[in-house]
Amino acid sequence: HYRAMVDLLGYAHTGGKALICLIDGLYAGVHPIEESPRKWNIGPFNGDWTSSLFVSQDPMAIDSVGFDFLWTEWNNYPHMSGAHDYLHEGALADNPPSGTFYDPDHATATVRMASLGVHEHWNNAEDRQYSRNLGTGNGIELVKGGWPVAVIAADPTSGKAPLTVEFDGSGSYDTDPPGTIVEYRWDFESDGTIDATGQTVSHVYTTVGTHLASLTVVDNDGFSETAGLQIVIERQPGDFDADYDVDQDDFGTEQGCLSGTGVMVSGICKYADLDHDGDVDVTDIALFKGCLSGEGVPAEPTCAP
Fold first, then answer.
1. Which of 101, 160, 263, 295 has a Cα-to-Cα distance from 20 of 20 to 30 A?
2. What is the pLDDT at residue 143?
3. Hey, which CATH number is domain 148-234, 2.60.40.10, 3.30.230.10, 3.30.70.1150, 2.60.15.10?
């Protein structure tokens, strides 16, 4: 039969101007006359609210998917005769089953409307696959929109260089069950380079300063999400030139910062205050001598408080 919805969707100043079609399924129900949403039993909702948005550039495809959900959940209105006639008519608007000459842009039949899009049904209510999903045709592809959540943990998150940090991404998860995380990408400096892959990895930081490590997780639908974590690398006691040893070059800096008891220091000389009392005096010189390791020999991180 003729369906007015086809004319509305094809008319140049209504559906003809729509670039993106949306179905608001956040709180879906049975029928507008009931004026209240209901929780749905079919998957993936499983007794909860539908909490969904559907997006497509094809008005026939998006309504076909919506109809499949309605047909499966409810055994009343969607099953009534003619409930989805307009999908058949619209998808075949250039040669519709009713034989109607759809031409909403002219007062008389002048130019027959072209197809409004693709109409088909999914393979089953559990897998919810269409021809493009299955690789059997160029029809509908239903892409799940549940994004993964990246959760990054590290131990330790601060310490003196060189510092080995153990990273763990096992807390990451997918928000679209039964989706899974299939890839873990680690960028230890957030410079855009993938430095390691895997659920758990380790990295040695050798440069003093604050580093931003990031984890990007990818789920089985190809969606990704990134989380970051700061790693703070501190200077070794007495290692003023940050070359990981405490030698004569560093001793020269320590002596140059000598201020005397009660005289506060600033700048790089704050690192010469090894007992953290604000000044550089004979106590700090004694502590420094205990930290001397020699050129090329890594300093002991615990040589000073």
1. 101
2. 85
3. 2.60.40.10
